[in-house]
User: Fold this.
Amino acid sequence: MTVMRVALVIEALVFAQRTWAQSPRDSLSKVYLAGCHAGVEEAQNLLPDLAQKSELERRVYATCDSSLVRLAATGDVRLERDAGRFGCRSGIRDMFERYGVGIEITQGSDRLKRSYAECLYRLWDQDLLSPDSQSEIAPSRLLTLLRFLVVAEEAFYGDSVRYTATVTHLELKIPPSVRASVRITGDGYRATVTSSSGLSCHVFVGAGGGVPGRKEGEPWCDQ
Assistant:
């Protein structure tokens, strides 16, 4: 690690300690900060590599922290209907502006929208969105989770020549906000995932778990 890099790390740690001492500790503020940091990371994933990429990221992290202190002092963070969404927008916008592509914010570019969507998905996985946002995002996330579950069950079947009803035996990450269950049906299985907002989605493989009007391997959600 170069001397300059060490100096930057020390500077970041000192700033973080000072900001942390000033930062509010309430749950709403923590949600905002989680969203802002996630927004920075998701924007970084889609923006091009630059020589100063890590330094830009560090600066925006610092901006997230200092913005939280200001927002908490003015009470603005409490006025937001969804502190997580607010945080995502803040981190992503700042990252795009520092990369010199702030024009994409007003244009609503594809990578801006993708960054925002991925940020919200991360917060959904952690159950850090408002109930309205959780309900809005739940269908797409649950359907995606079931598609991964089908792949994971097939991988398990390839190793064990059977399906499993024990979800923890699958190579599959289940968010804390989701309940998942699998029922073996003789020649296959039926799986159900339910979000914290109460939405349930299902998928079946094999004739034993079949549902009229539904296709094998294609997940659906309750209306």
